[in-house]
Every structure is written in structure tokens, then in C-alpha cells.
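Project outcomes to date are best conveyed with an example. Our students and postdoctoral researchers have been running inverse folding experiments weekly, and each run begins with a structure described purely in C-alpha cells. The record below, which covers 301 residues, was selected by the lab manager from last quarter's runs and is presented without edits.
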């Protein structure tokens, strides 16, 4: 079966996990975060609890399941917020339009850089570089990601949680817009003349193994393990501090600033990549710093 998946979900996965673009740094010191991908949020002026749900944006169908406790907290909530408004009928068209680059790849890359990338594609994929001439770099990464997966049937928890919300007649909203997300991922674009390192070249051929490890950690609900794995995966970019700040820290801060007011209005499910939960600048810690109580849901109530 042909691998078909929403462009929106692909971008969300790449943005959420940034696999292959990180520089190693120390493990998080916060070992108090137990293994759970569902967290209850309470605090001042919040009459009924809201919930954080860490998602895995992309996995093979054989590995896919929705935890009973996720289904349970949905029944206690009145609305759902995802990274993007996945209920928006125009979302895919907005994302597709955003994937079209203003300049051709030959102008964005140097001659040597273009030749290296063309050679890599011919040697390790079904694609030729001409197919990507008018696409943004993130769209190219997305295509290579899908091709690397060993399975043909792909599932996304975001899609399934959107379907679940729709069945329960829950309004669906986004914590950020397509424009916000595309502005963030632009930091990943290679600079003109920047050749791919051996680590980055290897990353493209190891995406399947990386995904398998992420799925394993997700199934264990080990959000600290996921955070550490992402942080210490061999990477290539010299501006990792900037990449981490824009893709993770700044977005986490923006979401954490919105969550209290939304939770005060209605009991809400906030579902986003599990990689955003842990860490000193993770959503859990940011909400705690803001005076909210955030505690894990370990089993059904």
C-alpha cells in the first residue's frame, strides 16, 4: 500500500521531535517526572481539571493504540487543543501552500552543496533533486521521512484524537497557526554553502531505527527518556542552541502562557508532541512555575 499521510502531521512530527538536528547536552536533572503521557492540570480559578496529553505524531499501525486513560479524560473534557487546528478544512491547503519555496533550490544551495544533496538522493532514495526544486527544506525532509519507514500503514495519534473529539462533538482548536509553525521550522534550513556532515547523512538513513526507539519510549510513557533521547541524538547543526530555543523553548512558553486561561474557561484536552512535556523549559515545569498544579494520571479513575 502506498504511504499516504497528511502533510500537516508530517510537519508536526518533524517540528515536535527535530530528530537528527540536535547537539548532545546533559540529561534533564528532573527525575521527578514519572512515566505518564497524561497529566492533570488544576489551579486558581480552574473549576474542573484540564489535561495535557503527550502524543506520538507518527508510528506504524502495528504499534498504534490509544490508551484507555486518554479516552477517559476525553469524556471529562469539553474541548481539545492541538498544536494546530486539525479540524480546520483549510489546514492542509494552507500547509501545502507554505511548502512552496520562494526561490528554487539551486539558488538556495551553493553549487557544491546542491551536488552533494543530489548525489545523496540518487544513492539513498527514490527521488531526484529536480522533484524538490520548488519545495521548502522541511517538505523535503518530510518526504524522506515517510520513505524511510519500514511499514506501509502509518497511523498518527493526532488524527485519531481529532476523530475522537469529533465523535464527542468537542470543539477543536490550535495552540499555534501554520504561519507560526513555518516560521519556527525555518531555523532548520541549511545555510547556503553548508554541506551535510557525516552525522546528518547518517541520520537520513537511520530514521526508521530512530522512530522505533521513540515508539518504544512512548509506549513506556517515558517522557524523560524521550526528552533525553532527542537531546542526545547525534546532530549536525552548529546553531543548535538557536534551534532548541525556537523549536522547543519558545513554543513551549507560548503554549504554557495560553493554557491557564483556556483551562479556566472550560475543561480542556491539550494534546501535543510528548517531547514538549519534560525538561526545565518543558510545558509541565512552565505551568508549575506559573502556579498551577500538574500531576500525572497513572491509571483510570
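After processing, the design step wrote out the following sequence:
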Amino acid at each position: 500500500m502506498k504511504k499516504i499521510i497528511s502533510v500537516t502531521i508530517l510537519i508536526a512530527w518533524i517540528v515536535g521531535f527535530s530528530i537528527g538536528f540536535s547537539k548532545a547536552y546533559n540529561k534533564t536533572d528532573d527525575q521527578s517526572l514519572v512515566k505518564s503521557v497524561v497529566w492533570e492540570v488544576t489551579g486558581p480559578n480552574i473549576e474542573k481539571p484540564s489535561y495535557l496529553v503527550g502524543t506520538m505524531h507518527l508510528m506504524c499501525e502495528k504499534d498504534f493504540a490509544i490508551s484507555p486513560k486518554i479516552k477517559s479524560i476525553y469524556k471529562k473534557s469539553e474541548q481539545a487543543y492541538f498544536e494546530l487546528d486539525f479540524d480546520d478544512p483549510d489546514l492542509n491547503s494552507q500547509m501545502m501552500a507554505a511548502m512552496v519555496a520562494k526561490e528554487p533550490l539551486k539558488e538556495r544551495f551553493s553549487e557544491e552543496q546542491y551536488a552533494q544533496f543530489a548525489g545523496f538522493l540518487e544513492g539513498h532514495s527514490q527521488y531526484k533533486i529536480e522533484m524538490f526544486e520548488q519545495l521548502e527544506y522541511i517538505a523535503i525532509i518530510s518526504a524522506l521521512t515517510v520513505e524511510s519507514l519500514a511499514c506501509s500503514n502509518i497511523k498518527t495519534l493526532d488524527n485519531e484524537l481529532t476523530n475522537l473529539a469529533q465523535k464527542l462533538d468537542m470543539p477543536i482548536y490550535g495552540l499555534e497557526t501554520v504561519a507560526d509553525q513555518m516560521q519556527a521550522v525555518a531555523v532548520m534550513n541549511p545555510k547556503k554553502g553548508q554541506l551535510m556532515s557525516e552525522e546528518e547523512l547518517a541520520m537520513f538513513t537511520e530514521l526508521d531505527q530512530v522512530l522505533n526507539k521513540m515508539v518504544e519510549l512512548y509506549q513506556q510513557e517515558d517522557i524523560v527518556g524521550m526528552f533525553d533521547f532527542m537531546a542526545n541524538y547525534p546532530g549536525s547543526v552548529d546553531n543548535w542552541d538557536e534551534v532548541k530555543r525556537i523549536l522547543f523553548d519558545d513554543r513551549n512558553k507560548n503554549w504554557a502562557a495560553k493554557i491557564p486561561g483556556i483551562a479556566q474557561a472550560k475543561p480542556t484536552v491539550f494534546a501535543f508532541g510528548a517531547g514538549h512535556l519534560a525538561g526545565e523549559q518543558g510545558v509541565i515545569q512552565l505551568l508549575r512555575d506559573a502556579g498551577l498544579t500538574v500531576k500525572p494520571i497513572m491509571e483510570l479513575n
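The longest strand covers residues 50-55. The chain is about 45% helix and 10% strand. The training component of this project remains on track.
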